[in-house]
Amino acid sequence: MNQSFENRIAWVVGASSGIGAEIALQVNAAGGTVVLSARNEEKLKAVQDRLKYPEKSLCLPLDLEDQTDFAAKVNVVIDAFGQIDYLYNNGGLSQRGEAAATDIEIDRRIMEINYFGNIALTKAVLPYMQKQKSGHIIVISSIAGKFGFYLRSAYAASKHALQGFYESVLLEEAKNNIFVTLAYPGKINTDISKSALNQDGKEHGVMDHNQATGMSAEVCVKKLLKAVTKRKKSILIGNKEIWAVHIKRFFPALFWRIIRKQSPT
Q1: Domains, in order of start, for the chain
Q2: Is the entire prediction scored with pTM above 0.85?
Q3: I want to staple 4 with a disulfide (CB 3.0 to 4.6 A). Which of 16, 187, 199, 229 is the partner?
Q4: Tens-place pLDDT, residues 48-90
Q5: Would you name the residues annotated as active-site residues?
């Protein structure tokens, strides 16, 4: 891992907590310089204080819902470090609400953050990666990007959309030596369920059982970074829940019998 990240510049979006914070910690511990981005600057600085090499870092607040200043944000990173070797697109918002009871504006907001915000930053970074003829974009999707699930209609839709976009980028940018890894975490022990939007557009505010009993963020990120160093195009990360993806592919009738019995939280 040290060989891949030492003296490289890694921009981590959604770095204030959970998987994003752990990515920053592990990449920095391996000698990488990390740019920490999320909305909450105070939380970013708290993560920065935990870095092994805090001098090799930059806090750069960023809101995926407001894409008007992305070009300026990219310029800040380029001015500071001269290049961007890795872009970890990890920021996003989950959901806990039935489709029929969820106002369309909530669907639009989740799509704006999880999809349009995500790809807008990539589009802002790509010209610099093209110029340097190198780069690696890592997209933190979800197992919900492989199949729909209770209370996740907008969230699952946004994650499915990311797969189509980034598989296309993977093909188009191979000529520029730019690579893409799509990661599909299952049940990971983070606070994602707490900040999820319910059908009224308010925070769910509860640590779901699925998250509380899930794989630790530390183990998740170790598996992720191993896949990044091996230049894997995609990786499923989790415990037994990730087998649902394979069951759906090879035994679809069995998949639907199993999945309808699963707890949504």
Answers
A1: 2-240 (3.40.50.720)
A2: yes
A3: 229
A4: 999 999 999 999 999 999 999 999 999 999 999 999 999 999 9
A5: 155
